[in-house]
Amino acid sequence: MFSRRSFLQGLGYFAIGSILGTTLRTQRVLAAQHDIKITAVEPYVLKGGKCWVIVRTSDGVSGIGEVSPMNAPAAALLIRDEFAPLLIGANPLDIDRCWDRVFYRTYKQGVMGLQPEALSGIDIALWDILGKVAGMPIHRLLGGKRRDTVRVYASIGGAAEVSPESVAQRADAAAKDGFTAVKIRQDYGPLIPDRNVKKDLAVLEAVRKAIGDDVELKYDVNNGYSLQTAINVGKEIERFNVIHYEEPLAQTNYAGYAKLVDAVNVPVAAGEHEYTRWQFRDLIEQANVDILQPDLVKCAGISEAVKIAALASAYHRPLCPHQTQPTIGQAATLHYTSVFVDNDMAQELTEGGHKSPLHDLFKTPLEYKDGHLTVPDAPGLGLELDEAKLKNALE
Fold this sequence. Notes:
The chain folds into 2 domains: 12-139, Enolase-like, domain 1, CATH 3.30.390; 144-389, Enolase-like C-terminal domain (TIM Barrel, Alpha-Beta Barrel). The protein has 13 helices and 12 strands. It has helices at 4-33, 72-87, 95-105, 114-134, 138-141, 164-176, 197-211, 227-236, 254-263, 277-287, 301-314, 328-340, 387-392; strands spanning 38-45, 51-57, 62-67, 149-156, 181-185, 216-220, 242-246, 268-270, 291-292, 347-350, 368-369, 372-374.
């Protein structure tokens, strides 16, 4: 007799096979036709604490990737000393084989945090190379984009440390800049829960008043509530028409999330702190959250995010990827979202990210207009890095 769980797991494996089939065949055909080798894997730590990666090949094609900035120097060290020796000489078009080689041989360096984050930078760069060799944008390699632009929301952080009025002013400025959705982040962390709930509600009330009824409002607690407080606040914020209630509980409290989801009507989102398909399986089956949020510069790259998308499809959960990096990470997420998000749910863009000076490091930066980012159509990521400018941006 088959259980419901085994049936859904079977659907997940079928979905993974369906989604990956065409992409894997493309990789193998191109790898067979192009006997190229990885010649260098170069991590770069930028001023401000970001880590980018350039993977170079024997035929002159190079790819760029990005690592979560949580600990850029440590990620760069791991890439240089552990990952690079495993990859030099491999065919960069054999992405899955490269991913397996790095992930499983350095498994004890992770698998929550630094190891999959560092692997994200490598994997994104390999997809960039694959697209350039194929002469196609990544979204086409993944199955084809569903839209030319992706609606984005302004992700406004630090609300716990400033007045409700100042947060409301920033939200209003974002709405006037063309954003049709904003998210307010407390940036709490899980160590001291329930710090200032009265003020939290005052922030949301001020923001809703400032942006009016037509701009969507999302709320990210950053793991700062106990279960009962999360339930109480979840019921309160319905009056502000909050449509996305992100990580109110500690990221490890799957049992609490399941109770929260049952108790509130506002959709609960999580996934920023999950790094592999196996953790997302548990987030779905144990925590039962409504919205899944893989982060492509954290969750071991595009390759693993595709498998997570398959799980989301099998379990009928919408994707709304977490993404705070405005250039390479955002470009990878645009390709991914345009393929796997079959709705108009606004995706994350850090407040002011479309105006970041990091865009000046690219000859072909991302294009923002009226609350939307354009999905690049050039081969690979569609970003051309100006390496001369990059040298001046390094620590």
